[in-house]
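Exercise: predict the structure of this protein bound to (3S)-3,7-diaminoheptanoic acid.
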Amino acid sequence: MRDAENVTVRLSDYQPPDYLIDEIALVFSLEPKATIVAARSHVRRSGASTSPLVLNGERLELQSIAIDGAALASDQFSIEPGRLIIHSPPASFLLDVVTRISPATNTHLEGLYMSGGRFCTQCEAEGFRSITYYLDRPDVMARFAVRLEADKASYPTLLSNGNLAESGDLPDGRHFAVWVDPHPKPAYLFALCAGKYESIHDQFVTQSGRKVALGIYVDPGDTPRAGYAMDSLKRAMKWDEEAFKREYDLDVFNIVAVRDFNFGAMENKGLNIFNSSLILADADTATDADFEAIEAVVGHEYFHNWTGNRITCRDWFQLCLKEGLTVYREQEFSADQRSRPVQRIKDVKRLRARQFGEDAGPLAHAVRPSSYQKIDNFYTATVYEKGGEVIRMLKRILGEDAFTRGMQLYFESRDGTASTIEDFIGCFEEASGRKLDSFMRWYEQAGTPALKVRGDYDASARTYRLHVSQRLSATPGQPHKLPAPIPLQIGFISPDGAIIASKVEGDNLSRTEHRAVLEDTEATFEFSDVLEKPIVSVVRGFSAPVTLDDDLTPEARLAQMAHDPDPFTRWEAGQTLARSIMLGEGGASVSELTMALGRELDRAQEDPAFAALALRLPDLNELILSSSSPDPDKLFQSRESLRRAIATALRDRLEGIAKTRGETPFSPSAEAAGRRALKSAALDLLAALGPSQTLTDAYDNAQSMTEAVAALDALGASESPAFDEALAKFYDRWKANPLVIDKWFAAQASSPRHDVLARVERLRAHAEFNLKNPNRVRSLAAAFAMRNPRAFHSANGDGYRFLASLAETIDPLNPALAARLLTPFESWKRFDAQRQSHARTALEHLASLPQLSKNTREMVERTLA
Ligand code: B3K
Ligand code: ZN
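Solution:
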């Protein structure tokens, strides 16, 4: 059945539900091609209206439908695309619906499907409607009781949300389990898993003494790689008690890892389902980035138990209510587990890499969008990453105490509800006694504000006046913008690096750092007792998601790089200098930057992870975004020539680092990962000098997956003839491990080698390429289009054609995946006419396909608009 008609859903059209469901009992008789789902719901009318009951449902075969035990006659209901309508139901009744579905042929990976011969589900956002007819909207919250029945030999483990109430054997080799979740929840949090797993188990005792049985279920043979996820889970549970006073609320917490999954993971109540790439890790098969991501995502999904599950969203426009807040909580968790400054810089890099580009193109949308066709297309960097930044700014603006009071008020007053951003912000207004109307603009307006800063020093009066202004460009559908409050964190140093303290009006103390908020379009902040002309940093810690024009001289930036007390500012100064050089905007000389980076190497032992970040130049995507008429080939060459200059000047020391033997035994700690990150950064720079024995040896001597992948990347980037040999060895060693083979695909697709387009075409035809496995698809398509911008934007249009044709092939199988693959097209209008015309042709071809899914059509149309 085709999707419901292409309607645009608008926030302004929100209506509370006419009917509510308080309880639902589900019975699944699991069979791969013919699963029978019997759903019994307690339905009641919520208001006076006697409107029909409209249930959502897609790709369902209705077996029977009855109210209070009496089957409905054919004139009492009708079935339309996407819904089932019961014309005049009573005010309160028991609804029995029996549907038949085919998980084995469900390639959408949404609803109930099979992965590796096991049953699993994905219901966010609107997957439950392909399991049964239901009020599939987050403001309908019901208590779920779920009975699973299946063949015992094929599906020995049966899991669902909540606590296990009962289990036992049935005739004919079948068995059953009943799971009861006492917490009312929206249908998007429903989950079931059934199959043959291997599992590891542990226990967590909450601060009030509740014993929680923890389990992680993986494919047979994978348990040795599940330990880090379990360890991360226990740390996350503890951290949420300490940082947010949030305790877990069931007797069990289970995680199931599945191979075929459309995104990272899913926070189903008591039964998180994870992409196996975010559970399985050990030294040989996972990189440090994998370990870091596992810790972060295990934390993220666990933190959703409060921010998302107990307090859920009223409607999908409020997605950032749970996602932005949970990203913020996850980032704080990672900062506490690892190095706070390094975490902050990584978060900023991610925001800039993924969100700034979105904000600058045709897909720009507000953190809380006001309309959509498919909500799946709005699980974006803006909702997630910028949504997290908005919470961070709220905290900076209100201060730690009022923020904490607001959070606790939110947890207490909104528990058990489906809430809105207004409800959330209202808690902070109440806790702080401040109006936050203008702060709401951060949720409502798309685009990255541009902050302009100019300073005036009056030597005789020893005063410094800082003029700050903001500007927000038009974005699709939002021609005019209003100023939003921008938190600033301001500090001064002298040209020789001394910290300069100063005073502001109304405060007698001289301070080394000031917090201020730009409330309007512009403002002047005045500082007194400033003993010498300062070098100013205004967004220390990246206090707001803005771009900054601060007019500092190259000398001032070099001083910041060397001396600013704020690590973010030190890193940013180096990045800004490098960016200006690569964009040909002048600024510091190459040798000055090289010397400054040399000093980073001198002190690398203090914090290798920071030094590694400092040595990595802004990537090509960032240069494209900063350039008004980007030429990817020129920008690539210019970046290469700076890398070559740096590598030439620092060669001996970089080689020394690149040749250090990997540490054994392996530790995934942040410290050990930091040392490996420095080694990877050294290899990356050395690759700019062309093929070398150092790079080949680095691959052969790698002691961990991090080192192996860094060496592979360097061999690729240096155009080394040893690349193919290393790839062959890698493939041979890891061919039985799909997650590692994903890295093998990605290493080739992301390599800037001259022959990459031919390579990705060959890889697409490779026997191990699998259109039905999202990880494999992304390891080729996303690695190519997002990490290899020169090739993706190649002037002859081959890169665009490759991505569009892959999306076309995947669309009928998995629309959500196909639609997301097209994201890299968001920048197409920034390029020259020739590239634009290739991109337009590729997108228009997609738009012309009559059977294109609603997901992909929406993405294509918005990108073209
Ligand atoms: N909430 C899920 C994402 C679901 C995506 C649906 N299209 C994972 C997360 O953000 O935690
Ligand atoms: Zn989330």
